[in-house]
UniProtKB/TrEMBL annotation:
Family annotation (Gene3D superfamilies): Periplasmic binding protein-like II
Localization per record: Cell envelope
Signal peptide range: 1-24
Organism: Actinoplanes campanulatus
Full protein name: Probable sugar-binding periplasmic protein
InterPro entries: Bact_solute-bd_prot1, SBP
């Protein structure tokens, strides 16, 4: 086992690590072994969820002390940069946050994270997690991360008043019906019926269209090589995507997702495709006149993304890190985390008391639906592949060249796909 001595202070560029303790003031924790948990959860529901896990960890793991290695800002971009530098300098935290799935591939290749397959068996995760999720987390018959909770990406959110004013009272069930509703909204005077942001939000929309046109199995095959990006089916899906984008705001490439959500809240759009974390933005803006439905044509497909934690090969306190991971994996931990963050438990046997109506609906769909990963959120593809897809979509957003988009996406798959 490789171990390293953790630096007392790690400063990379202009970003400093903020180190805090979950122990209360006045506690004598000098005899405790610390477990550094590296995340980008610095505020809001994310920090509240992390704090809940930290409290359970302190309670469940006597002799261990939670140490927060948080790097705020940039929605994780800054944290990933700091983490990469620390790992390169052999200054690994005991555990770090990462999007579950393909985003871990580079860390696995570099031998920076440990195989947790035995722990999955011991902690009952193989039975408690959906089989499709376990399959997506498995690399060469091994599993390297523990999801803390699950968010859903393929959800459409509405401004009910805007839709009602256009005479739209029923959620569309198919892409054809969705496009018809977008046309109706524009005829009623809504300039941008679909609120849309830049890069990864466009990739989210494309993925939902691909799921509708290909089905969940063939969609997932796009990232494993069993479905070809240059197929006629993908060509037709890109044509559908191009048609839908025509109904979005022309300044989409300059807006982050909360700014796009503002268009929906302000009544300048009728629909937005966005993950279920958007409810926090709605609440922050005291907006309640919305509804939601699964993207038309996706059926029972649940496109998931999950924040997860790993055990680093350079952990100074591997046993403490394992206890942290067991806390994260437990039904109690998953419930406490999701209750505060607004996600849902990855485990299908975790309690749901205190959940919102939306969370309860999502839990039911998670337990009965078909899980598929998301390239936009690192569960289906690696970070370089995601970057290439975002660049291709950005170019399409400007040019409108669907042939060039399909060619660029096929080239990215050829470059980054991993053959079995």
């Amino acid at each position: 086992m490789r171990t390293t001595r953790r630096a007392l202070a790690a400063v990379v560029g202009a970003t400093a690590l903020l180190v805090t303790s979950a122990c209360g003031p006045g506690e004598d924790d000098t005899a405790a072994s610390t477990v550094e948990v590296f995340t980008w959860w610095a505020g809001g529901g994310e920090k509240a969820g992390l704090d809940a896990l930290a409290g359970l960890f302190t309670e469940s793991c006597p002799g261990q002390r939670f140490e927060s290695g948080v790097v705020p800002g940039g929605a994780g971009v800054d944290a990933k940069r700091v983490l990469a530098a620390r790992l390169q300098h052999h200054d690994a935290p005991d555990t770090f946050q990462v999007h579950a799935g393909a985003e871990l591939l580079d860390h696995i290749d570099a031998d920076q994270v440990r195989d947790l397959s035995a722990e999955y068996q011991t902690w009952g995760l193989r039975d408690a997690l959906p089989a499709g999720l376990v399959a997506d987390l498995t690399v060469n018959d091994r599993i390297y991360s523990v999801p803390a909770g699950v968010h859903r990406a393929n959800v459409v959110w509405t401004n009910d008043q805007v839709l009602a004013d256009a005479g739209i009272l029923v959620a569309p069930k198919t892409l054809k019906e969705l496009i018809g509703n977008l046309e109706r909204l524009r005829r009623s005077g809504v300039e941008s019926p679909l609120a849309l942001g830049r890069d990864w939000t466009q990739l989210m929309l494309l993925e939902s269209v691909l799921i509708s046109d290909l089905g969940p199995k063939r969609f997932s095959g796009l990232f494993t090589g069993t479905t070809q990006w240059d197929s006629r089916a993908v060509e037709l899906a890109i044509e559908d995507y191009a048609r839908i984008v025509e109904f979005s705001n022309t300044d989409r490439d300059s807006l982050d997702w909360p700014e796009a959500t503002r268009l929906l809240i302000d009544g300048k759009a009728g629909y937005q495709l966005m993950g279920d974390w958007v409810t926090a933005e709605m609440a922050a803006n005291t907006f309640s006149g919305y509804d939601s439905f699964t993207f038309p044509g996706n059926g029972k497909t649940f496109q998931w993304l999950a924040d997860s934690f790993v055990l680093t090969t350079g952990a100074a306190n591997p046993e403490g890190a394992r206890c942290w991971l067991e806390t994260v994996a437990s039904p109690r931990g998953q419930h406490a985390f999701s209750l505060r963050k607004g996600s849902i438990p990855a485990r299908t046997d975790a309690p749901t008391d205190g959940f919102t109506d939306y969370q309860l609906e999502a839990v039911a769909d998670w337990r009965s639906g078909t899980p598929v990963p998301s390239c936009a959120h690192g569960s289906a593809c690696s970070q370089p592949w995601q970057n290439a897809a975002n660049a291709a979509l950005g170019a399409f957003s400007t040019s409108g060249d669907a042939i060039a988009l399909r060619s660029a996406l096929a080239a990215a798959a050829k470059q980054f796909i991993r053959q079995p």
